[in-house]
Amino acid sequence: xxxxxxxxxxxxxxxxxxxxxxxxxxxDDLINELINKAQNVxxxxxxxxxxxxxxxxxxxxxxxxxx
Length: 67
Known about the structure:
Helices cover 49% and strands 0% of the residues. It is mostly helical. The protein has a domain at 8-42.
């Protein structure tokens, strides 16, 4: 079953470029690839800064406490 979705022109241009980069044969394949990548991100990941941010110390917690 085919369906249509409404997107902005700039979003379509981004999808066109990404489709070429990923070498997806259809937009459906591209969207499914993006969904699969999004679903495979482990819940324990802390964005791109994982491992770069130190844990808050007790002093940090006290310093940022609002009164």
